[in-house]
Amino acid sequence: MQYLKAPVSEVVLGITFNKPIFTNDELFVINSLLQEGYPNLELLPPLNLEKLEGYLLQTTFDIQITGQVLYRRRNKENTRLIQVQQNAIYYNWIRLDSVPVGDYPGYDVIYNEYIGILDMLEKHLNKHFDKNIAFFDLTYHDRFFWEDYLTTLSNVNTIMDISVPQIFNNCNNIFSKYTYPLPIKNNFCILNLSTATSPIEMKQILHFESNIRGTGLPFNEWFEMAHKNQNQIFETIFKESLKSKWN
Questions:
Q1: How far apart are CA 30 and CA 120, in angstroms?
Q2: What is the pLDDT of residues 67-86, one digit of tens each?
Q3: pTM of the model
């Protein structure tokens, strides 16, 4: 089901490779190619490698694989972000906190934009991004003002399929992380639930992040599978009493 007022705030698609696929010279070429459409440049430490191994979420950092820099290029409106390092290519659609809900263009639009970027890079660099894949990523972020629906976070179970310890009955912050292995081998899901304060409205935000990560299927089949799972997570985690307000 589609929810026109669903509070989707960010969608991230990405590929991480198990070896460096870009040289420093090629990263320079990529930056030149992206400069016109994505003029705002940030240089940050590289993204870590994070995998679920048994019951442990293992994080590894190897600059021989990642390189030393993550290049982040944003468009003028700060609604699109391309992230590139020696072993990864990520694409973010972003709804700024100043933009009301309902601005989400839909998954297919974002997916096709990402495909277009990958095709352009493959053409200019004479590369193919179908080998040496460590994992694919599909992440959704949902952010909404929880005080519009609740008087206290202690009652979060009335709008989401989650509960907090009823100790003093006036919980005012949540920071929770959960991992779930998926039926397909080497695929898993990370769920994060947290609270924050909007820097613009200075209102309390509930932030739900759902990240599906893995491999084992061709590119298009994997993202189709991950998108279906993301839909299931959304339908399951948010209760009908809340979703009915987002129609």
A1: 10
A2: 999 999 999 999 999 999 99
A3: 0.95
54 Rama class: left (phi>0) / alpha (psi -120 to 50) / beta: left
* CA separation, residue 197 to residues 144, 148, 157 (Å): 11, 14, 21
72 closest CA partner among 55, 85, 54: 85
d(CA 24, CA 22): 7
For residue 62, how many other CB atoms are within 10 A of its CB?
Answer: 11
Bigger pLDDT: 247 vs 112: 112
Residue 1 has pLDDT above 70, yes or no: no
Please write down the HEC assignment for all residues of the chain.
CCCCCCCEEEEEEEEEECCCCCCHHHHHHHHHHHCCCCCEEEEECCCCEEEEECCEEEEECCHHHHCCCEEEEECCCCCEEEEEECCEEEEEEECCCCCCCCCCCCHHHHHHHHHHHHHHHHHHHCCCCCCCEEEEEEEEEEEEEHHHCCCCHHHHHHCECCCCCCCCCCCCCCEEEEEEECCCCCCEEEEEEEEEECCCCCCEEEEEEEEEEECCCCHHHHHHHHHHHHHHHHHHHECHHHHHHHC
Residue showing tokens 């912050």: 173
pLDDT 10s digits, 216-239: 999 999 999 999 999 999 999 999
β partners of residue 197: 204
Give the tokens for residue 111: 């997916």
Q: Report d(CA 38, CA 220) in Å as an integer.
A: 25
β-sheet bridge partners, residue 92: 12, 81
